Amino acid sequence: MKIDNSGSKEEKESLFTKLAENEIYRKIIIVVGLIGIAFIFLSGLFKSDHTEAKTVSSPTEVSADQYAAQLESKLTDIVMRIKGTGSAKVLVTLERSTQYVYATEEKKSNQTTQDKSDGTTTKNEANDNTETTYILVKGADGAQKALAVTEVQPIIKGVVVVCDGGDDPVVQQNVISAVTTALDITSVRVCVVKAK
Known about the structure:
Blueprint: H1 6-21, H2 23-57, H3 64-80, E1 88-94, E2 99-102, E3 104-117, E4 121-134, E5 136-138, E6 144-146, E7 148-152, E8 156-163, H4 169-183, E9 190-194
Parallel strand pairs: 8-9
Antiparallel strand pairs: 1-8, 2-7, 3-4, 5-6
């Protein structure tokens, strides 16, 4: 038994021929094709932005000492630009190091039991359980690590600025204002003294 497909091929060819000969259909096909190409181009742009965001969002391991050293360097540069300070040295102390908040998953279960005896006494017992687990992801090396959601910067305990103009009240106030604004801390945490 042989199936004749020649009729269906002729129908397909005549349909394509009709579409190609009709000017309105040709324009529609061209517009649809251009829209498809535009979507492919745009998806390529979004895909590359998404991969860049992944690499940027991964937490960088910066120790508390490195963080304090970076702050000291930046603050020294700023303080030395204030009129009347002269040469300066800055010390930043931290309360704690950088902390990471990790993604967790909570499973809650409630269990209630009721005991009745002789229809007069009822005893209810409720048992609530909560289980918290960290969400793990595989790294490039195959090791599993907890998924970091956010990074909490170290808290600044205090700043000491030693500069040549540290005995001038105007210079002291300018330095304190600059440091408190830069670090978003209170002026109580900043000490400005004159260098010897």
